Amino acid sequence: MNSEQNLTREEAIAILNTPDEQLNELIERAGALRKKYKGNHVSIHLLTNARSGNCSQNCAYCAQSCRSHADIEKYKWVDDEKLYGDNTFVHDHKLSRHCIGLSGMKFSDAEIEELASKIHKMKEEGTHLCCSIGFLTKKQALMLKEAGLDRINHNLNTSRSNYPNICTTHTYEQRVNNIHMLQDLGFEICSGGIIGMGESKEDVVDMLLDLKEINPEAVILAVGSDDLILPIEGIENAVTAMEVYNNDFKGLGESTIILGGGLVGCEAAADYIDHGVKTMIVEMKGALMPDITGLYRTAVHDFIDEHGGKYEVNAKVTKVGKDYVTAEQNGKEIILKADTVVNAMGRRNHSTEALESVINEKGIPVWKIGDCVRARQIGDSVREGWTAAMEII
């Protein structure tokens, strides 16, 4: 590290390339930085999703986009009873902040005036108010500032060079300019990024260096997860469920075998069946989706049954070929054949210790969201990601 104790780009990349045998030392140092700057204290916030869905932008990661198929509620304004009730709850329970999230890129002056009047009313209770909102004009930002808004969340999301790969309806520079305009007006800024969207380690560091220049009050880490690859002979012959989706189902053939009958495997099977592919699921446990309960599990299971999907349970995969699978079932070997084999055995979360070390070196608080905390259902991750992003503001 240089004499000013600021990480260079090369030093930051070296941290991200820390070999596995040195991870314990890195984790220990990252923990020391967290304790130095944050101790053992946490802030508790409450989120009100004031506007949901139908955003015109095509940000690849966002459930609020009109291009997204995520199962979320869509509405222009949450009712006042909910908004003001949440604000009173924040005040009465002495929470740190009331966070208000609004989907969308641009807003009319009339819409901002309406939001400002609501903020003014909520500030009467003395709550610290924050908004996650799209691009504002200076006039609109001043309306919110004068109404009492304290903080605004606006993320960079990735590096400047990688940004066109995740969004084409606006630019990285627009985001940076919006943040600088808000800072000049005196707003606190929360900003961060999402990792796991095909960027390189150099992209991660470049984004962090830009965040350092912005000097936000907080950083979001959403580094995601990778496909779980179990040590099974020939597993490299299977494609992953994500590769199938990324290739728009090309190359599946007329039939496929899915390894893993959890929710990911069963959702993939339902999708493949809907695309006319004969599908067989192989699950080690005694039932499909054994860890899922409720009506959704029933609906997915019924769809597979009613549309010709097949499955073998209590079957432990022992070998994988490009067009076959062998498994042990009730003490006997079974051989299953198909055009392709898909690995849907689960997800493994990405480690965040190296990133936290880089960010904590500057004394900036870090929040982790989504699959990097724990791999889970897509619907859960979407809801948690949106909620947690709001909590930090």
Gap between N and C termini: 31 Å
Instruction: Please give the order of strands in the largest beta sheet.
Output: 1-2-3-4-5
- Strand segment count: 18
Radius of gyration: 24 Å
Structural class: alpha/beta
Note the run of SSEs as H and E: HHEHEHEHEHEEHEEEHEHEHEEEEEEHEH
Largest sheet: number of strands, sense, barrel closure: 5 strands, parallel
- Poorly predicted runs are none
Estimated share of beta-strand residues: 15-25%
Number of helices: 12
Indicate the percent of residues in helices. 25-40%
Q: Give the averaged pLDDT, no decimals.
A: 86
Q: How would you characterize the overall build of this protein?
A:
With 393 residues, this protein is an alpha/beta fold. The protein is 36% helix and 19% strand. The protein has helices at 9-16, 23-38, 80-92, 109-123, 138-147, 172-184, 201-214, 241-246, 263-274, 295-306, 353-360, 378-391, and strands at residues 45-51, 97-102, 129-132, 151-153, 188-190, 193-194, 219-222, 225-227, 239-240, 255-259, 278-282, 310-312, 315-320, 324-329, 332-337, 340-343, 347-349, 366-368. The strands form five sheets. It has a five-stranded parallel β-sheet with strand order 1-2-3-4-5, with helices on both faces. Helix 9 links the parallel strand 10 (255-259) and strand 11. Helix 2 packs across helix 11 (353-360), helix 4 packs parallel to helix 5 (138-147) and helix 9 crosses helix 10 (295-306). The chain is globular. The model has no long low-confidence stretch (mean pLDDT 86).
